[in-house]
Amino acid sequence: SVGLCVKPKTKAKELLPWINQMDMILVMTVEPGFGGQSFMRDALPKIREIRDFINRNKLSTHVEVDGGIDSKTVVEAANAGANVMVAGTSVFRSPEGLEKAISKIRMTERI
Known about the structure:
The protein has four helices and four strands; from the N terminus they run E-E-H-E-H-E-H-H. The chain is α/β, with parallel strands linked by helices. Strand 2, helix 1 (44-56) and strand 3 form a beta-alpha-beta unit. The chain is globular. The relative contact order is 0.17.
């Protein structure tokens, strides 16, 4: 599989020429480097633009999101078009434990 990871400041238009060669695009919704950062909502239009391109071109590329994912932001990311989520801090630092934290994210309804 081939994937590409992009930082928050990378524009979607910079990826579009290569998306047809990718199995997955990972959109960082925090600045890489350390956990516990807040989800950057200004990444949502980029996720939407990437998903729209994938759909228009009938590609099977996954859109993954990493950074600030929890039971609330997972809905926003999914509604924007992400279909793979990475949750770190919200799971590993959950006072409810790993199983409950994962379950809350998985059971979150997409609007």
